[in-house]
Amino acid sequence: MSLGSRLAVRLCPSPFPLRRKLLLSLPVTRFLHNSPANSANLLPIIAHGPPPKPPLPAASEIGELRRQQTAERANPGKKFWKEVKIEKWDDGLAILLDKLPIRTPLKKPIVVPESKPLLAHAIALEWCLLHSTKVALTKHYRTPLTQLAGRVIDMREPNASTPSRDATISNVMRYLHTDTLIFYAPTTPEGQRDPNKKTLRELQVEEAEPVVKWLTTVLWPGTKIEYNDGDLGFMATAQQPPETVRVIREWLEGLTDWDLVALELATLSSKSLLIGARLVAEWSSDVGVGERSWGFDQAARAASVEVRYQTEIWGEVEDTHDVDKEDLNRRLGAAWLMALGRMSKSL
């Protein structure tokens, strides 16, 4: 209560003497302010460029990666080579660091067939982009084509890290009966269909039938490939005819080491032996049956029908679906480059 109010209470008689007595007994408090109230001075924004990146927690993996990248740029380290070049040897194209060839884990020089000049230049580019010997020895993910080429060369002498040809063929054949390309979703009931949109089953048939037709008429003529029909239940997996299995295995055994590793990479990436076979057969100069009209982008599209269908309905999850899409294209592109022979002038 203010001082003026208390004086008014003293002067005016109150019909409630007890209440008046209680009010008069309260202490009188006064607040004194000697500093004037000053308004804030707003300063103009004079910063240029994009806003700074938001701070990241100390334990963040992205933050740690950024710190490593910043440290590498500030102190790139040293590398023992000054230039990367391609030199023609008797058995193909060797990638040299100055005068020394790049070697496999078994200490064999990496020599790419002369029919694959683009692959040789891509491997050389990987080493041109390295900025230190330490990165070359510890971060093998920065030289994926080099690792694949070393796998091909060391395949003839299998070891703990390099499977043999037979093991590679058996690993690829496991995908035949459960191939992603030939799995069809159940038919959508009429009451749940969107008249302006294709069903998942229709999209799967649209991608699978041209590939299967090409394989059974051009690459493996006379064979028959059974589909896994979702209307029969997903537990009822269709087994391919024994004759089809025999023909495909014999075809795999006839591939070169380079085409076999390319096929394995495409199969593991797409979860489909049929997609990998179409991609390798289209572009390999050693197989020589394709018109080079079906590339790794079509292979990636055929391998991701269900993902595209679901994301069109529910949307993409950032840093998940988009990253997986680019990773699939990257891996199938590497398989394509491994199988690719010399490009003709007409292409």
From TrEMBL:
Q: Where in the cell is it found?
A: Mitochondrion
UniProt KW Mitochondrion keyword = yes
Keywords from UniProt, A to Z, are: Chaperone, Mitochondrion, Transit peptide
The answer to whether UniProt assigns keyword Chaperone to this entry is: yes
Gene Ontology biological-process annotations: mitochondrial proton-transporting ATP synthase complex assembly
Q: Which InterPro entries match?
A: ATP12_ATP_synth-F1-assembly, ATP12_ATP_synth-F1-assembly_N, ATP12_ortho_dom_sf
One GO term describing the cellular component: mitochondrion
- Superkingdom, natural source: Eukaryota
Q: Which family does it belong to?
A: Belongs to the ATP12 family.
What protein am I looking at?
ATP12-domain-containing protein
Q: Which species does the entry assign this protein to? A: Tuber borchii
